Amino acid sequence: AQSVTQPDIHITVSEGASLELRCNYSYGATPYLFWYVQSPGQGLQLLLKYFSGDTLVQGIKGFEAEFKRSQSSFNLRKPSVHWSDAAEYFCAVAPGGNEKLTFGTGTRLTIIP
Amino acid sequence: NAGVTQTPKFQVLKTGQSMTLQCAQDMNHEYMSWYRQDPGMGLRLIHYSVGAGITDQGEVPNGYNVSRSTTEDFPLRLLSAAPSQTSVYFCASRDISGNTIYFGEGSWLTVV
Questions:
Q1: Residues in Cβ contact with A68 at an 8 Å cutoff, skipping those fewer than 6 apart
Q2: Are strands B10-13 and B19-25 parallel, antiparallel or unpaired?
Q3: Looking at chain A, which residue has its C-alpha nearest residue B94?
Q4: Cβ of A99 and B94 within 8 Å?
Q5: A106 inside 8 A of chain B by CB
Q6: C-alpha to C-alpha distance for B61 and B66, rounded to whole angstroms
Q7: H or E element: which one contains A89?
Q8: Rounded to whole angstroms, how far apart are CA atoms A96 and B37?
Q9: What φ, ψ does residue B6 adopt, rounded to 5°?
Q10: A46 CB within 8 Å of a chain B CB
Q11: Please, how many CA atoms are within 13 Å of residue A75, restricted to the half-sphere of its CB?
Q12: Nearest residue in chain A measured CA to CA from B29
């Protein structure tokens, strides 16, 4: 069975600083990988996804993620965060096209002025 | 531009009561699913459906029933609510050829 680990429960970053959120997965084959963002009291919004091809994936709101098979990782990055990026971020994995997503426990991002 | 619509958004139940969380999508998606979100645990799959008339269990199905009589609707039933079912519930859908899952805005359920 697949699993996802997000080692950082809470991260605090200054506005304008760079950001990297970690995600490690466990799955026997090449998985489908996703990053979702959830603002307080809201649903989940898809930031980006990786299925195959170029291992550097661009998403919405200036986010990108890099798939590294050798490290079983799919870390999310942003070069310069904005106060509006404060939210909870979830990494998820699904076996090829299956809707049975397995989510990490999330990383809460706080932005300080 | 409705997408995935969940009702109600907020609900308080007493232990032992029954209720149905409604989920409807207007994108003609074959796949629909229900997740629950609990603090520190991410989202966990409750039940899913790959088409009308077909449902299957996810990771945490106990205490919940589902049915899929139409492509558009996928209701989640709690037959006898328990405090352990206090959670935020998300419905999701995707089409058979796409790989993007669309989520509803969530239903906040409290069982007292």
A1: A55, A74, A75
A2: unpaired
A3: A99
A4: yes
A5: yes
A6: 10
A7: strand A87-94
A8: 23
A9: -115, 140
A10: yes
A11: 10
A12: A99
**Span B22-49, pLDDT tens digits:** 999 999 999 999 999 998 888 999 999 9
Identify the CA nearest to B42 among candidates A4, A112, A57.
A4
Residue found by looking up tokens 């074959």 in the block: B30
Please name every residue paired with B25 in a beta bridge, in sequence order, or none if there are none.
Answer: B4
Provide, as residue numbers in chain B, all residues whose Cβ is less than 8 Å from the Cβ of A4.
42
CA distance B54 to chain A (A): 14
Class of domain A3-112: mainly beta
Structure tokens at B107: 């239903």
List the structure tokens of A43: 């649903």
The residue ranges of every structural domain in chain A are 3-112
Which stretches of chain B are assigned E, i.e. beta strand? 4-7, 10-13, 19-25, 31-37, 43-51, 54-57, 64-66, 76-78, 87-94, 102-103, 107-111
In this predicted model, what pLDDT tens digit does every residue of B36-91 receive, in sequence order? 999 888 899 999 999 999 999 999 999 999 999 999 999 999 999 999 999 999 99
Nearest to B48 among A49, A99, A105 (CB): A99
Taking CA atoms, A90 is separated from A57, A62, A80, B38, B86, in Å, by 16, 17, 19, 13, 21
Q: Does B41 touch chain A (CB under 8 A)?
A: yes
**Which 3 state secondary structure label does DSSP give B29?**
coil
